[in-house]
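User: Can you help me understand a structure? I only have the sequence.
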Amino acid sequence: MDRIRIRGGRQLKGEIRISGSKNASLPLMVTALLSDKKLTLHNVPRLADITTMIQLLKQHGVEIGAAPGENGHTHGTTLTLQAAKISSTTAPYDIVRKMRASVLVLGALLAREGVARVSLPGGCAIGARPVDLHIAGLKAMGAQNRLIRSVFIFNGMNLIARGLLYGNLVGLGLCFIQDSFHLFRLNAHDYYMSYVPIEWNWSTVIVLNVIVFVVVSIVLLLPTRFITRIQPVQAIRFD
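Assistant: Let's start by predicting it. Here is the structure, written out as tokens:
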């Protein structure tokens, strides 16, 4: 593992240029959605999360130009953003899953267009980081529980449907390959057959899909009901 070893006893002097803050840049970039005017940001750091946010904002119709940093900020970028027209109020899961800060577009889209659909954000591997504070803030500004609930349920059901579809395709595909080519073979000295037999039972497949759908739906609906009923003060305490 790399390490930094510091030997003290000497006075530090000189000049360094401070890079822009990622956590400050991401919310400022999202503010471009609030107006059709041009927004210019200087000294934006060149990081993966910034690139992901650029992709997300472009998907919503924001025109973005990037230029090398000014005033000696060689490691920063000057961004020009303008959302003359919002082309989409839906933040797709393929982009949102990469970065936790993607949820920031929820409030901006809702304020500008009156409606927003944002998939549950990802990009966090350090533990649970709920978005209850965002939901409570939207409620405090007049967003309806029914609307908030429908957004979460819509995206959740979409993920369930895709998971079931891909799971069925992969599982049935593996069964078909095994049944046709007998890739997984058994030791003939230990078993009465030399390959793993496959029995197609569509009723079992349907029953298993229904069970998975019901269980995952319950797991989705309970948190959704909780976050749509929480009050701003509770959200701050909970978060």
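Now, to help you interpret it: The beta strands are 38-45, 63-68, 76-82, 90-91, 117-118. The first helix runs from residue 22 to 30. Let me know which part you'd like to focus on.
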